[in-house]
Write a structure and sequence with these properties.
Number of domains: 1
Strand order of the largest sheet: 1-2-3-5
Helix content: 40-55%
Strand content: 15-25%
Number of helices: 5
CATH class: Alpha Beta
Shape: globular
Number of strands: 6
């Protein structure tokens, strides 16, 4: 029910911003929002999925792209691809941490911050954006370098 209220609020704000117009229906801008759901770790497949959602929003001339996000984090390279695409996008992006109990941890923090609007359902959390390695322990110099690079 709360997600429905968010959709209505976003569409209402977008429609309100258009105002009354004497344009023909062919000239009017769509008030469509493209919605995609990410409930996975951030990896090359996730980046490709988000890219396809971005392309869909552009093709359909959507007023905004809504990304429903629930992720424990993921790969830095994939995160950078996603963040760069969101930041370069002319279509506003709403990142909605959803459903209740969901998280936007690690890579999810950066994706959420890249959006034009960040929203969170009750009972969700965001945070713990710290690099980890897949090979085990790293020395203090490499740990500091990875932290500064994230």
């Amino acid at each position: 029910m709360k997600i429905l209220a968010l959709y209505i609020a976003v569409i209402g704000l977008l429609a309100f911003g258009q105002g009354a117009s004497s344009q023909t229906s062919e000239d009017q801008i769509s008030t469509k929002a493209v919605v995609i759901s990410v409930d996975a770790t951030i990896n090359p497949s996730t980046a490709e999925y988000i890219t396809s959602g971005i392309n869909q929003a552009l093709e359909e001339k959507a007023e905004c792209l809504i990304i429903k996000l629930n992720t424990p984090g993921g790969l830095l390279k994939s995160t950078r691809v996603i963040v760069t695409e969101i930041l370069d996008l002319e279509v506003p992006v709403v990142v909605f941490v959803y459903p209740g109990g969901a998280q936007a941890a690690s890579a999810g923090v950066f994706i959420t911050l890249a959006g034009h609007i960040a929203a969170m359902a009750p009972g969700t959390n965001i945070g713990a954006a710290h690099p980890v390695t897949m090979q085990g322990e790293q020395d203090s110099i490499m740990n500091e370098k990875a932290t500064n690079d994230a």
